[in-house]
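Crash report, auto-generated. Payload:
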Amino acid sequence: MSYLRPLYHLAQADFRERARRFSFLLTLAGGAYLACEAIRGGLVLHYGPYCGRYNSAWVATGMACWASFFLSLIGFYIVRGTVEHDRRTRVGEILATTPIGRLSYLLGKFLSNLSVFVCMLAVLALGAVVMQWLRGEDMRVDPGAILTPFLLVSIPCLAFVAAVALLFDSLPLLAGAVGNTAYFFVWLWLVERMDRLSSLRWDLFGKNVVASSLAASVQEQFGEGGYRLQTTIKSLAAAAGLQASQEYISFTWHGLHYTPGIVLDRLV
Amino acid sequence: MQLLIDHVGKRYRGDLWGLRDFTLDLGPGVVGLLGPNGAGKSTLMRMLATITRPTEGRITWNGEDTARKPDPLREALGYLPQEFGVYPNLTPVEFLEYLSAVKGLGARRARRRIAELLDFLGLGSDRDRRLGGFSGGMKQRVGIAQALLNDPQLLIVDEPTAGLDPEERVRFRNLLSDLAGERIVLLSTHIVSDVEAIATRIAILNRGHLVSDATPEWLLSRVADRVWEWVIPSEELAAARQRHVIGAAVRQSDGIRVRVVSDAPPAQSAQPTQAALEDAYLYFISADRAEAPR
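Recovered output after restart:
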């Protein structure tokens, strides 16, 4: 039996089943809202007082960073439950009577989880292009600069989330509300750990990769650095009584220059 | 084509056995596996379908031990589990394409087979509708379609009529009967009428062991002179239930006509009557219960 055909159909059926649910459309709408917020300036990615010109590299990297952060939490709850669904419907029993092995089954489910994320990233990538045009600071759309951050910042992070969701699904102890609660605390712990981490290799959200490139660019253009990469959500900042209308210093950033070392780190 | 269940047992935990010392030798035909809920039918079905392994004994398919080498049986198996669910957002074609791929069918063969099965099962005009909008009977037909994708030599269906309306049940029974031909169809149920018209052989299970394995004719012959009917006042029904295993109680103008299986006439006015398979089933189950340690 060909190995790829059952794997492909397993992932495809699972993906179709989820992609046709209303909740999936809601999630895509959430992604579109995130893009809208970024377009109208409610969501700003900045490196200390510096904010990049809205060229393809900057808008896509911003979207990719936000996708890593938000979808690593929300995405977990969206993709989990697929094994439980097979158990509940007894489709899992039928699969257990076929020649397909456990590993292939899990791999198919993983690919399905990842496909759900890729769909969401596609919406955000489209949002990045629209955002670039609407901001009008640089009208030249560079497809490579749009896609690269999604491929190397968001996808490694979301592949990790897809695998963790599957792990939680497969362990009876972590099924249901216990797993949902446990993941929330795991995520909080990861956010805290990643915030303090300077290594590129274990940088789950891909933030350090972006920050180090921005630092080099700001250093080159303004001769200073040492800031942190941050996202300001203006409405939240205003609600917290913080100054939300800060004027950022604009600079031109041409995107991440991925070396084989960085690619390897992201794959790890 | 031979499925041999040889002194098979399944222990769940501690000393709790779902099935014990079960032996059955099966060839082509429809075999009805009858027993009350908790008798061990689903435990046996799951082992036969290679979902779980026996704790003791062995199951062989054409001489191959299915625990050691499950693939020969899996390639020849169609399985419809109890309370089968579906992916509600897929169409039957998409769902069957998916399962045909994991069963190892090539794309062209799968497409042809799916079209044949949907037509055969009366679902041809619903091929592009989502499964979530199907009735229970239609979903069950999709279930049987997936079980037949690989044209199985061994078809295992577990409580297939649960949740179906009477018309769907009759249709499903006829369908299984049509499918029998040169394959082994193993039909597990606790509803006697599901098997009485179509089974060529009936195995009765109770308390995790085999009570009887025989043809319907033999089972009927065992109770031929042991089925009685008589009319009692309705207030005596509770007392009659305590003394006898009542197979049927029908209210009529002069009281309640009760039907029991008993070696001797249960009352002076009791009249012998034609035995049915349900009487035989009750007879064997109640005899087995009587033997159970208290």
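Post-recovery validation: The first strand of chain B starts at residue 3 and ends at 13.
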